[in-house]
Write a structure and sequence with these properties.
The protein is α/β, with parallel strands linked by helices. It has six helices and five strands, in the order βαββαβαβααα. The chain is 37% helix and 19% strand.
Amino acid sequence: MSKDQKETRILVTYQSQTGNTRKVAEAIYEVLPEPKEIRPLKEAQSLEEYSLIFLGFPVHGSGPNPKATSYLENNTKDKQIALFITHAAPEDAPEMPESVQKFCDAAGEADILDVFHCQGQLSSIVKTVMRFAPDPQVREWAKMDNSKGQPDASRLEKAASFAKRVMEKQNTPVLSNGE
């Protein structure tokens, strides 16, 4: 490698409370070439040594939670990032484009290479809270919940394909079947 070429150092970092976003992060990580690292967001305070960052978050209240917003606003300026987002709603739910856009807006000073989002299982605690929410729409969403067992194998494969697509944009080879 010449002095002019910078080695692509990749970080996969994520925020996950119930394990959904962690599962997607692991699926992404498996197909990425070395040098790569994976770690929870709380252990990724600086992004300076990485040339490409895959950042994962769950949707909270139809967008990023305050910690996710702060992290995206304060740490991603001029960085090449790929966002991945998990949520309890089906991917084609009408509210999803707006929810996903809120993450992109928070990372507005980053170079966002691509965005992936998929359904994850709604936590039973959140579902219980939703069932008794004052907002009738939230109560209806709790009744309609079909997220059990998500993200499933097909969604995790889509996450891996997303990572491969991002790497192709970087002209970086990817691993087949995680090897």
